Amino acid sequence: MRLSPSGLSVPGPSRRSLLRGAGGAALLAGAGIPLLSACGGSGSSSDPKTVTLGSNASDAVPKKAFAEIYAAFKKQSGITVDVNTKDHNTFQEQINSYLQGTPDDVFNWFAGYRMQFFAAKKLATPIDDVWAKIGDNFPDAMKKLAKGEDGKYYFVPLYTYPWALFYRKSVFQQHGYKVPATWDELVALCKQMKKDGLVPIAFGDKDAWPAMGTFDQINFRLNGYDFHVELMGGKASWTDAKVKAVFDHWSEILPYHQDGFMGRTWQDAAQTLVSKKAGMYLLGSFVAQQFTSKADLDDLDFFAFPEINSAYGQDTVEAPTDGFMVSKAPKNKAGVTKLLEYLGTPEAEAIYLKADSSVVAASSKADTSSYTPLQKKAYEMISGAKNLTQFMDRDSRPDFTSTVMQPALQKFLQNPKGVDSLLSSIERQKKTIFASS
Amino acid sequence: MTTDTTTKTPEAAAVPPPGAASRTARARQGHRRLLTRRDRFTLALMAGVPTVLHVALVWVTALASIALAFTSWDGIGFSSIKWVGLDNFQQLFNDNPQFWPAVQHNIIWFVVLILIPTPLGLFLAVQLDKKIRFSRVYQTAFFLPVVMSLAVTGFVWQLIYNPDTGLINSLIGANKPGHYIDWIGDPHLNLWAVLVAASWRHTGYMMILYLAGLKGVDPSLREASSLDGANEWQTFKNVIFPTLRPTNTVVLVVTIIEALRAFDLVFVFNKGAQGTELLSILITNNIIGESSRIGYGSAIAVVLLVISLAVIIPYLVATFRKERRA
């Protein structure tokens, strides 16, 4: 079968290509892919004054923030951004068929492996010309995140946010707790909190991804950034003693996690921090969205996951970064370039941050004067980091993390003693998945 | 039934009685003349369109997923389809920690549905058939869960089972640290918790099927048995239930289908986390979404297909054989 994906979208197909297309469509349908979702792009964009953009910003706050950016861009350049918004999770789930069909010129996406994957599959257009202009706006760590495996740029970051241990200043003050700097101090603090009748670490893993955040933190604190990359890239073995050590550390603090976590969403877990029933919560800074009262929000603070191995200290920050990519054949290339150049400026970032204060700008030139104290701290943490990671499911193959790691970590949480057989099972499955392409 | 006629006709055509050949030819011509152009067009349209749809949506897709089960494909471009033989099945049977639990859960699902909600539905139907007061109200109340989408059912029950704010844990005080009963997450509990929800719905479904069956029972049968001095239980056991045979057939098939296609309820409930793995959810997790292990997911789908066929084919064969005899 020599069918290229573009075979489905050639204008004015010959009879044969039409038949091939129909055969392909039948095959796709047989495989259960929602075919119609591939028809997301609008056909009206050969117009030089319009750029189409596929957006996953379906929540009210980011949707409005993005709309304001595009309005400002129109004022500056006269180019209209025609936004096609889809539900956040649906967008993610349909991304494969979306990018193969007739995608919009530009689309929202994430940095890391998930971006490099589509770049390597030739479903994205390199944008080195854009980076020649916006390169100075970004720190080196961000530049690294924006490149594909071939060294070309494919991604324009807009904002980022750190993962850390969040806590209430007033609770720490009331009980006289100190921010733990080392693993032993963290364990001691957990013990003390339990004695004081608090839930030491709030936790909810119903959606299966929060546990990946805990694994990441312990892993790169214990084994360093390079090992994180090797492990996520499928090169290091999961049966390695280093991985076992991560789970041993995790087992040590697992009794201090909020119980009943398998049926709890992260939002519900965050509520225990809001109501001051929990001492700490390991999550991304979007946890702040759950703090609806201003007084509670001002009381919220965070610290980086404590040092475990002095060789690595706290040099790595997990900072998932969201931004934009260009689809394989944009209809209005000139307009796209202009739009991306604008999106890479501190001004565009400032507009976004005004509406959503739970994240910080990806650019090192962005104006930080209007940041909340929480944002300032997050910004310092990220800009001071030696390495930035994206999150397990953004740094590794999504098929591996969703079908193997999510259930495996949940299994570990239920039965921490069965680590050995669990790890060899992960390794076996990893080998076949990473060997497949 | 059809086999008889098809085996006869070719013989008849192959060895035509001498002299009859010209007659059959004339008859065939006559047939053709009977149908006008418009008739033939309509016939082609009415038989053709459903046939094309059926072939494209059932046969081609089923065969395509069987073919894909022996390949590895990430869904990007047809050139990336790679033939891997039986690898997918080997991985599935040996390495996938979720596969055997999923098969087991599908079977448990069926057994529970047939043992609890089905007799319960029959019981309710018998009671409602007695024309008790407010029987319409009860009918509506019991049938309501069936009308609702399973996704809604899953959502509602998930609220009831919520460990912190759910109805059950709040009532029995199991939402404090150290006392949590994790109905949704605990792998020893969650399948049963979700089966309660499934049974709640299935009871109504079974009730309506049996109620329809009971309405079709000839009242004279009941009269006759009461004249013979049978009590209520005897009447039901020896007279009414045997006449419900066609309904039982439908009930069995419906329940098997429900058990094999169980998906939406669990997906909304906890996305098929440990304890509630189901084949349908494994297929979805592997194929839909970013993971796109289409070959591997198809292999699971083929397993599900084989199980369905293994259950349905012997059953249908037996039923048709019985019907023919009757």
Automatic annotation (TrEMBL), chain A:
This is Sugar ABC transporter substrate-binding protein. Keywords: Transport. Signal peptide: none annotated. The keyword Nucleotide-binding does not apply. SUPFAM superfamilies: Periplasmic binding protein-like II. InterPro entries: Bact_solute-bd_prot1 (IPR050490), SBP (IPR006059), TAT_signal (IPR006311). It holds the Pfam family SBP_bac_1. The keyword Amino-acid biosynthesis does not apply. Belongs to the bacterial solute-binding protein 1 family.
Automatic annotation (TrEMBL), chain B:
The keyword Membrane applies. CDD domains: TM_PBP2 (cd06261). Residues 1-14 have a biased composition (Low complexity). It holds the Pfam family BPD_transp_1. This is ABC transporter permease. Residues 103-317 form the ABC transmembrane type-1 domain. It is found in: Cell membrane. It is a multi-pass membrane protein. Residues 1-29 are annotated as: Disordered.
